[in-house]
């Protein structure tokens, strides 16, 4: 079946429509070509056509009833192109040169001015709504759609949904509005409802099944519903898209779907194109502990919705703690509290996470755990949640539960983090799993190993794991010699001797493993010259000989050591 230009337009195949227009005698052909370019996001191409029309003689523009008015409308169309090309001064110039029939009043002009003001001073939505309500019946729909778009921009998604649904009741043939409604539900985390709404467009619209944007949105919803389980065929299909209007969105989403892979190569070019790119790039830096880069990305961002508040507060909290800046920490606390106490967010998962973060920063760990425990069912597989929950549990010395929660973390970057291993190591030690704590040493980056050993060596000693403490202090001594480490070595050796004494006091027998530890401790004392007089080494050797020969003189020798 041969398709007409109108068929291509109905399917939103603007590339096909513009190609067919080249061989068509359709009335107002140039205007339709510009229309196709614009909706294909080729704003530069559309602007060139509009410029030709603006400066063409009346006879070459087509047989319009009111050529002068059409020329003025073209000025507004050029302003729309300039707006999308981020040439805001040029757009305002076109607006200033516009003179419509009936004065300067034009619903389209009002909408463009509102958008331009938003770029400069973020005007209140209600101010612009008032002028739209007085429009005629045809322009009323466009005015309502503009209100919904402004509400969406200000993250008032529920109000936008209500407007879109009202328009759909009046004009059920406006099927593409279902995509906008699905977008709103997606932003509100109503993913099942978003899929159901998107299905209406896919089933009833001729363009639905082939829409790249629809497929991309559907993939995003599935990703949020089921995690990183998109089929390779689906990902490959998205990678193969070379359709200009959706290419940037797909590039951005593929980074998200791959858990941040290629963020550094992809996201910097999209910061001013895809609004979410800045937040996701900041999140990437946050996960990789590049807190300053994350903070600088969001420093000038004015949060408008809960997600933006959450990301900015998390970044501010991390950077503020690192550089010990009270002002930045105060900013983080303010944002956490704003979301956590918001009437619309306080009983949501993000709202409770924010309250938990607020209480954690205030060191009210028990209260923080109340909030975290209330949402554990929903986030038990979420690495960021398990990090915060596990740290909070460890802070109140619930080491058993803390160990279970921290071990749920799968992200390799987190598992290699110094703080993670310090807290998990402490949990192992407190839960009588000293050898497991020592095995963590191999996970530590070389640059963090000294910091790790300084903490866990003391923890091993205090818990009575003297042989492991000796290993830790010996490794630390080889990497960073100081008097405190030498004292730790000597104390660990004496701890081994004491442990051997207490373990053989009843049986008067020296197990082979204990004897091996004693010999190693004696070697350490001699190697690092920790027994200046040699009395410790001499006494322990005599005691070991007496135990091995069952002479029963070990008690006398130990008394001599203490004296």
> What is the assembly state of the chains in this entry?
single chain
Give the strand tally: 0
Q: Sketch the major β-sheet.
A: none
First CA to last CA: what distance?
107 Å
Poorly predicted ranges: 59-66, 121-137, 551-563
Measured by DSSP, the beta-strand proportion falls in: under 5%
User: Helix/strand/pairing class, anyone?
Assistant: mainly alpha
How many helical stretches?
Answer: 34
Please provide a brief summary of the model:
With 563 residues, this protein is mainly alpha-helical. 71% of the residues lie in helices and 0% in strands.
Give the arrangement of secondary structure elements.
Elements: H1 5-10, H2 14-21, H3 29-39, H4 43-55, H5 67-84, H6 88-97, H7 107-121, H8 125-132, H9 137-153, H10 157-170, H11 177-187, H12 191-204, H13 212-226, H14 232-239, H15 244-257, H16 263-266, H17 275-287, H18 291-298, H19 306-323, H20 326-340, H21 349-361, H22 365-374, H23 376-379, H24 383-395, H25 399-406, H26 412-415, H27 418-430, H28 434-439, H29 449-462, H30 466-479, H31 483-504, H32 512-527, H33 535-548, H34 554-562
Helix pairs in contact: 2-3, 3-4, 4-5, 5-6, 5-7, 6-7, 8-9, 9-10, 10-11, 11-12, 12-13, 13-15, 17-18, 17-19, 18-19, 19-20, 19-21, 20-21, 21-22, 22-24, 24-25, 25-27, 27-29, 29-30, 29-31, 30-31, 31-32, 33-34
Structure description:
- With 563 residues, the protein is an all-alpha fold.
- The relative contact order is 0.03.
- It starts with a helix and ends with a helix.
- Helix 3 (29-39) packs antiparallel against helix 4 (43-55) and helix 5 runs parallel beside helix 7.
- It has 34 helices and no strands.
């Amino acid at each position: 079946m041969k398709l007409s230009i109108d068929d291509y337009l109905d399917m939103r195949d603007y590339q096909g429509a513009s190609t067919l227009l080249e061989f068509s005698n359709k009335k107002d052909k140039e205007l339709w070509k510009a229309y196709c370019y614009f909706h294909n996001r080729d704003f530069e191409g559309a602007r060139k056509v509009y410029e030709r029309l603006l400066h063409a003689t009346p006879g070459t523009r087509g047989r319009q009833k009111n050529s002068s008015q059409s020329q003025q409308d073209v000025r507004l169309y050029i302003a729309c192109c300039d707006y999308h090309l981020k040439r805001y001064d040029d757009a305002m110039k076109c607006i200033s040169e516009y003179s419509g029939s009936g004065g300067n009043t034009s619903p389209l002009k009002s909408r463009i001015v509102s958008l331009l003001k938003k770029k400069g001073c973020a005007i209140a939505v209600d101010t612009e709504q008032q002028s739209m309500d007085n429009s005629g019946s045809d322009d009323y729909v466009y005015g309502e759609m503009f209100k919904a778009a402004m509400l969406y921009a200000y993250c008032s998604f529920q109000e936008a949904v209500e407007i879109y649904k009202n328009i759909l009741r009046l004009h059920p043939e406006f099927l593409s509005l279902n995509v906008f409604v699905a977008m709103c539900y997606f932003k509100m985390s109503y993913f099942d409802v978003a899929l159901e709404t998107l299905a209406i467009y896919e089933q009833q619209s001729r363009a639905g099944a082939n829409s790249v944007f629809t497929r991309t949105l559907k993939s995003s919803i599935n990703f949020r519903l089921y995690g990183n389980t998109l089929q390779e065929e689906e990902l490959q299909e998205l990678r193969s898209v070379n359709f200009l209007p959706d290419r940037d969105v797909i590039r951005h989403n593929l980074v998200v779907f791959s858990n941040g892979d290629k963020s550094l190569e992809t996201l910097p070019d999209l910061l001013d194109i895809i609004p979410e790119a800045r937040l996701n790039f900041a999140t990437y830096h946050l996960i990789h502990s590049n807190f300053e880069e994350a903070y600088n990305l969001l420093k000038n961002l004015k949060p408008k919705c809960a997600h933006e508040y959450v990301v900015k507060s998390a970044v501010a909290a991390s950077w503020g703690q690192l550089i010990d800046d009270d002002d930045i920490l105060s900013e983080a606390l303010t944002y956490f509290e704003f979301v956590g106490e918001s009437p619309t967010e306080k009983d949501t998962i993000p709202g409770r996470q924010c309250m938990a973060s607020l209480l954690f920063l205030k060191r009210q760990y028990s209260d923080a755990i109340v909030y975290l425990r209330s949402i554990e069912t929903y986030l038990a597989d979420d690495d960021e949640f398990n990090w915060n929950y596990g740290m909070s549990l460890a802070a109140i010395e619930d080491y058993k539960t803390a160990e279970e929660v921290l071990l749920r973390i799968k992200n390799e970057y987190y598992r290699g983090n110094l703080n993670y291993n310090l807290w998990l190591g402490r949990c192992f030690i407190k839960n009588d799993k000293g050898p497991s704590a020592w095995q963590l040493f191999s996970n530590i980056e070389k640059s963090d190993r000294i910091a790790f050993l300084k903490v866990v060596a003391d923890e091993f000693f205090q818990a009575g794991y003297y042989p492991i403490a000796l290993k830790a202090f010996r490794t630390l001594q080889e990497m960073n010699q100081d008097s405190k480490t030498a004292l730790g070595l000597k104390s660990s050796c004496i701890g081994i001797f004491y442990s051997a004494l207490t373990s053989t006091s009843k049986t008067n027998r020296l197990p082979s493993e204990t004897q091996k530890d004693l010999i190693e401790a004696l070697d350490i004392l001699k190697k690092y010259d920790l027994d200046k007089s040699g009395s410790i080494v001499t006494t322990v050797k005599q005691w070991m000989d007496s135990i091995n020969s069952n002479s029963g003189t070990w008690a006398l020798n130990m008394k001599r050591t203490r004296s």
